[in-house]
Amino acid sequence: MNPQAKFLFTTSLLLGTTITISSNHWIMAWTGLEINTLAILPLISKSHHPRAIEAATKYFLVQAAASALLLFSSMTNAWYTGQWDITQLTHPTSCLLLTTAISIKLGLVPFHFWFPEVLQGTSLTTGLLLATALKFPPTTLFILTSPSLNPTLLSLMAIASTALGGWAGLNQTQTRKILAFSSISHLGWMTIILIYNPKLTLITFYLYCLMTIPIFLTLNTIKTLKLTTMSTAWTKIPPMTATLMLTLLSLAGLPPLTGFLPKWLIIQELTKQEMTSTATIIALLSLLGLFFYLRLAYCATITLPPNSINFMKQWQTNKSTSMLITIFITLSIMLLPLSPM
User: Fold this and answer.
1) Are residues 89 and 193 both part of a single domain?
2) Is residue 171 part of a domain?
3) Beta carbons of 262 and 203 less than 8 angstroms apart
4) CA separation, residue 51 to residues 24, 37, 47, 56, 267 (Å)
5) For labelling alongside 98, which of 166, 191, 192, 303 has CA 20 to 30 A away?
């Protein structure tokens, strides 16, 4: 892709996100979401592969439908209450329509069907944008309107997302699809605490981004798209593959690592809200996700495929790694001791 065009699309992504998260008016928020959608489409389809074109088409149709529903929700609210302010969403029908629209944009169950397919059809760098940056504006709208939303509906969707994200990821062999279902599972954790502690949702989202970025960048560096090729990754950059295992376990939420922090705080908050059974269910469902994270870590570091002597010498090649990946990996593994601060 032309560098000028890539710069234009990246700037448009930043502009759309900034407009959405800083606006008070529904029309401005909708405009920012539309700018984001139009800016990411060329990045998805830049490889000109039929699968990439299919992914871009699916993404456009789903996001256009969700944006139309969001606009219809805000217009209904303005019709009955005369308010265009995002925080003044009071009409029940508008609240239900908005929940549906944002759920479609984020990929929450039962509107998750598009996300794994789109992520599978893109490159790892564009997939990283889809899994992190483009989920920020809809999450912000969810947080701004959280006092008006239905707690029971959000809890059901959150539990279903955590269950499906873990269950559907079990039989996947494509790393992009595994990371897509991982994203759906983490969205469940963010959504379940949205009504009771919106700040905790934001912290969970930030930490999820912090753990997902090094995984995508590492997979992009070692050129790994399938589990079968992941077993040969250690011959390319051994230290990075070892830290990839720790980052995956952090994303799974194992206690000494950073990923344990948001789950710990969410379970604590749910217990304070006398929702012990809900906290127990969502904690048990996250064990499904732990299984495929462990399988990824096992394939990356422990599995040794049959190799010739020439292939075994690949580790001697001098490959430079980005300092950015090193910083993100360090934060995604070792941030838990700093959490009291």
Assistant:
1) no
2) yes
3) yes
4) 38, 18, 9, 9, 40
5) 166
**Rounded Cα distance, 173 and 178, in Å:** 8
288 within some domain:
yes
In the block, tokens 């269910």 appear at: 281
pLDDT for 189-247, tens place per residue?
A: 999 999 999 999 999 999 999 999 999 998 888 888 888 787 777 777 777 778 888 88
CA distance 188 to 156: 9
171 shares a domain with 301: yes
pTM of the complete model beyond 0.85: yes
Residue-range definition of the domain harbouring residue 46: 1-123
Same domain, 113 and 4: yes
Whether the bond between 110 and the residue before it is cis, its omega within 30 degrees of 0, is yes
CB proximity list for 210: less than 8 A, separation 6 or greater: 258, 328, 331, 332, 335
- Summarised one tens digit per residue, pLDDT across range 13-41 is 999 999 999 999 999 999 999 999 999 99
Residues 222 and 119 reside in one and the same domain: no
> 111 and 196 in one domain?
no
The structural domain count of the chain equals 2
